[in-house]
Fold:
Amino acid sequence: MLLYMSNSSKKHPQALVIGAGVNGLTSAWCLQKEGFKVTVVAENLAPDITSVIAGALWEYPPAVCGHHRNEESLTRSKGWCMTSYEIFEKLASKPETGVRMRPVVFFFKRPIEDNEKEYNKMLEFKNKVKGFERNSNLIQENNINTRYELKDAYTFIAPMVDTDMYIDWLVKQTLDLGINIIQQKISGSLLEQEEHLKALFGADVIVNCSGLGSIELANDDTMYPLRGALVQVENDGKTMAPVLKSYCMSYDSSTSDQDMIYIIPRGDDRLLLGGLVEPDEWSIDIKLNDYKPVRDMLERCIDFLPILENANVDKAEPVKAGLRPSRKQNVRLEYEPNSSIIHNYGHGGSGVTLSWGCAIEVASLAKTKYSL
Structure:
């Protein structure tokens, strides 16, 4: 079924991008800019995609809600995320993108030096972002519940993305560039049907951005869902002072995987409260009143930031639930050996954060092969 079609035309080479999430659309945009004529094919389109559900707070790897710990993958992710940071910072000047540059505060139960990985992470990125400051006074200044006995904190200015607006903007950008978007399910191994797909869509290169679809399309049994959920509350200043910055605290693996704090402003009048990390759970039919881990998540955020006691849960969409496309070996961005297939999947909870860096690398790989 053809959903969107542009009238513009370009010469070869042509690219087929599979997947219309944030990585698929961004890859399509970058490929088109590099001289490819691009077609995007996806089973699901916004708003029925994980990218719209994402909290979409930019984070330097490893992310609070992610399982990415492989050192080789983290090294690549750090470059990708900084590329995205610079681009998001520019996009924030355009209100229609839904991108905002806002303060985020990360809190720690022990001095950061006590955790070598967290300390090294801080040292790596503190001079690469805007407004970095490490100061334990941030705990008291932000009225965090003293029961948590926090010891350390830092803040910086981070991109925060209203994904509803942003994905709509990305779709418009791709169409304006002359990219065709087709709603269609592709099943089976991409490698086995590579020549058929290239002939069917007139493609010289196939870019796989199918997320969890790569279990089938790339025969990748290392992929798994990492279910997440966010409770959405009103943040319009009517029942409480508006929260204009994000608050995060990583989970303490010595106690429970479900004790993280994730509080993120969304647009002008909503606030997202999380988080939840549930590997290998496929259902997204999660309701606030019926699922205890989501109720616990809400209560945990209110306990952490007591100003939230007066917040009203959004009536139209109280819970946002989605499946992060995670991979045991972490992000796969490479050519399939002896083929014209480029894989770009397995971003876990960092899809938005890594999107521009990954897309630019995809376009570079394709461009090099076709000497553009």
Observations:
- The CA atoms of residues 288 and 294 lie 6 Å apart.
